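Sequence in, structure out. First:
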Amino acid sequence: MTKLEIREANSSDSALILRFVKELARYEKAEHEVTASVEDIKKSIFSENSTVEAVICERDGTPIGFAVYFYNYSTWQGKKGLYLEDLYVTPESRGSGAGKLLLRYLAKKAVTEGCGRFEWSVLDWNQPAIDFYESIGAKPKSEWVGYQLSGQSLVDFGAATRIS
């Protein structure tokens, strides 16, 4: 019988995490958007002042998936929340319980840390993920539309010297 385990990631996992990120991006048809290097991963997740954490899922000691998360905050609840940035399980390991184990690990962490919520986003076309999330009791948000500033738009907006 195979044994699934979750462990906290460490800086020596940086190349593995980047590989998983690229595999996830390929699945999401956006591999060309991944600009991070191994050093970027190491610095952003494992530096002393990092606000990001990662866990690795292993089957019989072999890494088969990961999750990257951070804490956000709800003024309405007056509590922090746990935000799942990425969840990935290798294609050959899907259906093994690894994804559910990763989510349960993070849900327990959120409860233990007094978080008011545990949330994430999913691409609207990713029906297998949507079905999986709904099977564990997760509900889609309604009425809220996510926005982001990135790249040159972020630089330009942040550099503006006057409000117009």
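Second:
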Amino acid sequence: MSIISFSHVSKKYTGDVTALSEISLDINEGELVFLTGPSGAGKSTLLKLIAGMEKPSGGMLQVSGQDMRKLNRTTLPFLRRKLGLIMQQQRLLNDRNVLANVMLPLIISGATTLEAKERAMVALERVGMLGKAQALPRTLSGGEQQRVSIARAVVHKPRIILADEPTATLDRENGRMVLDMIEAFNRAGVTCVISTHDERLLQDADRIVQLTQGKLIGIRSSDSEVGA
């Protein structure tokens, strides 16, 4: 069953710049999907559309049953509660410790401080960062900061994780560790869509979606290849 559905979706920016053109793609619940392609291929734009950070210029996009063209200030927060976002730049708040950073999405959504703290500690334990709960983000390594970002992304138990080049700034060992954590959530039933330019990370994918210049040029799976 599709949890994300693109039907002839395009995205244009000011100046008639086309970032995505006629994308048709269904992502099923529980899938692990990688987006590949060179810089400027449209991978980040595609993730931003799923996250509701951008709206399609044309076509139909549905995420968890929500028509993304009809998002507004009332409906967007409800959609965001179903999403976990892991970005290349961690964007952790340096004036708050690790625990407070992970608690923040729950506090914003109305959880009590006690509930947020308990759930944040569980999330930190799952990514091996509970021992750094009181540390400030600037004292952590890049790999540790990305693990905190994963804890923050999953603390509200999302149905979908979106990760934009989550290993790009990490060495091979830390990159593999971060990807292993994301894949662990996928095995628990979370749909994961990950953009990457690193072919070495693709071995465990259910499907690999290839983009070039805003166009979907192919979909690879473990046992087949489909040209777009």
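Remark: The longest strand covers residues 2-13.
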